[in-house]
Amino acid sequence: MSTQNRQFQWSHLLSFIYPPVTAMAATLLAHDDFEVIWNDGIAEKQSCEEFLRLFESERPHLLAVETKMPVIKQHWGILDGLKSKHPDCQFVLMSDHVATLLRESMERNEAL
Q: What is the pTM of this model?
């Protein structure tokens, strides 16, 4: 069930809905002895520049990103830029938009 929209909100009050899908994926990976870095940039009010600095300092092998339709093009651009600089990193994009329009995401995002 995807009922939250944490990336885009009409209200100026930021909601802190816990992201169960990404949290479950992170928990399963940690349970299987993968080192997991949990970064909820929305709850932390993290800028794109702050996120990119964290990415550069941690150099993950896998990056999973929750996205939504209002910001998916922006996320495609960010991931494409990261992939060009870090070709060995694997990228996972998660959302109802990606699940519904998978072909579009695969064709329009070189990182995937």
A: 0.76
